[in-house]
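Hi V.,

You were right to ask for the full record rather than a summary. Here it is.
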Amino acid sequence: MKNILPYAFVLVFLFSCADDPKKPENIKPVLVTVSKVTSGNTAAFITASGKIESENSAEISTRMMGYVHKIHVKTGQQVKKGQLLVSINNADLQAKKAQAEAGVLQATASYNNAKKDYDRFVNLFQQQSASQKELDDKTARFEMAKAGLESAKQMKNEVVAQFTYANITAPFSGVITQTFVKDGDMATPGMPLISMEGMSKMQVAAMVSEEDISNIKKGMNAAVLIKSLNKEMTGKVSEVSQSAKNTGGQYLVKISLDKMDAEIRSGMFVNVQFPLTHQTDNKQTIKILVPENALVRQGQLTGIYTVGNDNTAILRWLRVGNVYGNQMEVLSGLSVGETYIISSEGKLYNGVKIRIQ
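Predicted structure:
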């Protein structure tokens, strides 16, 4: 047993000296594509953030109080103009309508009777068989009956008009975005029941700073980059707000999109670029731009992998600025001439060996 132990220690020592497959020098380098940082004059334009919204939207409510009898639509459902959306219990309106119709019948009978008396006394007066006082009395009675009939008809029209608030229809064609009530709920005047948006025409609502708003004019072109779809569209400025009182120093600008796309949905966030026709000195600055897909984001931090000594990947944290199409402006952290990694065929991490293709 004593003779075996020295040989065991020798074997352990030999294995410990063998190459460790997990050592960094034995890891296969990651194949990467690189580019050099360049700079130049970018086209002069103003950038702003915003979101897509429908040009036609509404929150539908009612003017009457009553229990919701039935909701005829669901969220996401497409509806046509005039389609029934909500029915409110209208038993009291039915009773009022019956009363109004009875009032019209009663007023009609009184009117017909008064008209016959009036016509009779007109003939008698012409034959000098009735006095002026008698004719005046019949004329007044006839006018009162005529006014009573008109009042009864208008009362009926008022009740009939209220039925439009009991059976609520779509004011335009579009899609239901939200229902605020369910069957059996109490509807009150002014309370939103359903919200809907028209899908035929979309626009962008963007907020522009006070430094740039003087350069935005109605009718000017704008480029709209939809972040989630990575798609760029064009449009024209349709509205420019003249006040920032309720928007915290930002001015609301609306851009009508030139064409529609089936993938576009209301609420999507966008970046908007307003090209300037008259370039000013403060817009003609030298900018460092890198592709957005080369950036690394960790929480609130934004970085990029650069090429370090001995062909290693070095993560560099950056301070970034505006987005220009599919490129991001780098304010600090990179210098002109430095090499950065655009893409890789393996996982990158700080210090990993790389091989430039």
